[in-house]
Amino acid sequence: MRDEMFCDTDIEPTNILKYLYAKSQEDYTYYMSPAVPPVLRSDITGSLRDYLSNFINIPIADVGFLKTLPNSFYPIHKDCFRITALNMLMTQPSEECITSVYKIDKNPLSNKKIKVPYQKDKFVILDVMSFHSVENKSSTITRLLLSIGIKTHSFSQVLDIYRSGKLFNLNLQYEA
Fold first, then answer.
1. Domain 6-163 part of CATH 2.60.120.620
2. Comparison of pLDDT for 53 and 74, the residue scoring more
3. Of 27, 54, 76, 138, whose CB is crowded by the most CB atoms within 10 A?
């Protein structure tokens, strides 16, 4: 389902990683999001958001950190506030913390659950209009994800822009 529901990239925002990690540790900024069901979220504002708005060459609707706590499950859903997401896993990949997408067919016996192959610190383009879920079976790991929401471009449009080499402004420097 790669390129139909998700696309893993080799893009790592090295110029800003240390600032993202520092910001993600500010626990007082997290709240329960308005999504159904809610998720633990912290919005990114100020110069970090400005940088990411310029790093991504299409308009971003929202940008923040999402936490999936140990022993939790974010059920199968479609996002309601955005149509595409650029996600970056900020914890080590683990078989205990899995994001899955679901290929739903007219014949229920043909339905498929596919694991999204996240790599730490690299962006994945995700079609959040497709059914997906997050499962954290770990009793100790809190899964951390940078998530950038897109409202103006579909997954296929974002994928085309990525393939053309125009999605990420790789030469952009960050000044704190």
1. yes
2. 53
3. 138
* pLDDT tops 60 at residue 23: yes
Other beta carbons within 10 Å of 60 = 18
Whether 1 has a pLDDT exceeding 60, the answer reads no
Nearest to 149 by CA among 57, 83, 78, 74: 83
Domain ranges, ordered by start, for the chain: 6-163
Alpha-carbon distances, residue 136 vs 32, 43, 68, 110, 169 (angstroms): 17, 22, 7, 26, 32
Q: How many CB atoms lie within 10 A of CB 87?
A: 22
Coil, helix or strand for 173?
coil
pLDDT score at 152 = 97
Q: How many CB atoms lie within 10 A of CB 147?
A: 20
Q: What pLDDT was estimated at residue 37? A: 64
Strands in 72-77's sheet, in edge-to-edge order, are: 72-77, 132-136, 97-103, 112-115
Q: For tokens 């809610």, what's the residue? A: 38
DSSP state of 148: E
The distance in angstroms from the start CA to the end CA of the chain is: 38
